[in-house]
Amino acid sequence: xxxxxxxxxxxxxxxxxxxxxxxxxxxxxxxxxxxxxxxxxxxxxxxxxxxxxxxxxxxxxxxxxxxxxxxxxxxxxxxxxxxxxxxxxxxxxxxxxxxxxxxxxxxxxxxxxxxxxxxxxxxxxxxxxxxxxxxxxxxxxxxxxxxxxxxxxxxxxxxxxxxxxxxxxxxxxxxxxxxxxxxxxxxxxxxxxxxxxxxxxxxxxxxxxxxxxxxxxxxxxxxxxxxxxxxxxxxxxxxxxxxxxxxxxxxxxxxxxxxxxxxxxxxxxxxxxxxxxxxxxxxxxxxxxxxxxxxxxxxxxxxxxxxxxxxxxxxxxxxxxxxxxxxxxxxxxxxxxxxxxxxxxxxxxxxxxxxxxxxxxxxxxxxxxxxxxxxxxxxxxxxxxxxxxxxxxxxxxxxxxxxxxxxxxxxxxxxxxxxxxxxxxxxxxxxxxxxxxxxxxxxxxxxxxxxxxxxxxxxxxxxxxxxxxxxxxxxxxxxxxxxxxxxxxxxxx
Length: 493
Description:
Largest sheet: 8 strands, mixed
Number of domains: 2
Number of strands: 21
Helix content: 25-40%
Strand content: 15-25%
Structural class: alpha/beta
Number of helices: 12
């Protein structure tokens, strides 16, 4: 939905948005010598992982399960980040893990996950499916083609045990609401699922059908409720035809909080609108507006960025979903429908599981002015080291000066740019206002980048090196210990 409004002339000129920072990360930043030493040793950019922070996120989701008396399994979606320390830390909990490729399957097993705790999603070639069948990994099939391939390879292997399979569905429909008209690539359309059920019945000697799954990114709670209703209706149809589904998988897409304060977030959006209206100086690179636009003096559009302070996040958001009432099932709660049908609940949190688990740090290489006179801070990193097209964090980075005694006040807005020899290597498309002006040798910290930001699209473009990772955790003396990410141990000996 687009919003349009007129703005007064007294809107605050500076748009400032402080990040929400985990207390452990805040304490780490208060010891700048260690961070500078790590960057001196491992280079810039550097991804600093906080593997023990994942415990808070696991507990958040587990609390929602406990509150609603749900059985099932939480599958940590590993694809948003390549950190080994985070997977190793998760492996000593009771949760499962979701992999999306043959290499990620090998990765999580080497980090301590038993095949019985692994779910395989993502597009699957014969090599991927073969490994999953041999290891008895739960396969989440995305198409009829995959189901046929699973059945054929199972037969060729001559396995005595059945292939454990879930089927991902899409194309949800309801008389009381419309879904977004956007097309999607995930799953089998609900109109085709009855035929899939018949196929599963015909091959139940080889396929152990665990249930239906879906994944909705950015959907509202009403759409998710409809999706779960459709999913349950098909589950009951499968049961009626002789199958024995164990549960329902409602995927991920859980929100996290990036900004420290909701009032500041709302004020920030108003300032962006004033910028687009022209009542204050531009707050976005090349006056892009980040989704807002000026139409004859009226600001229209909506922010093309993630909500930085959503009303519910992680386990609280799961609790919200489970407490929705279903119009298709006598206004019963979703949680009661699943539990009373003796079904388990499976979820696949990725971003929610990685909240506050990592930061990305870049060293200042230079300062200069742009063609239009904007102040640019050039970092020894590039946009691929901190980039996700659908997120666009707007929170201010934290400056860690090389000289901690330097405290020269700053009154200018800045843009951070990268080290690629291309004109579009902009690290943040919004202007920020650091308290002190960054200088060469200072460090700039982008917070909460573990999920989809630090390495999801990272590349060695123009032969720039990939960022290294180090794991950091508090010690008992008030300081911090660290290890290379792949050498982190989740328990002490």
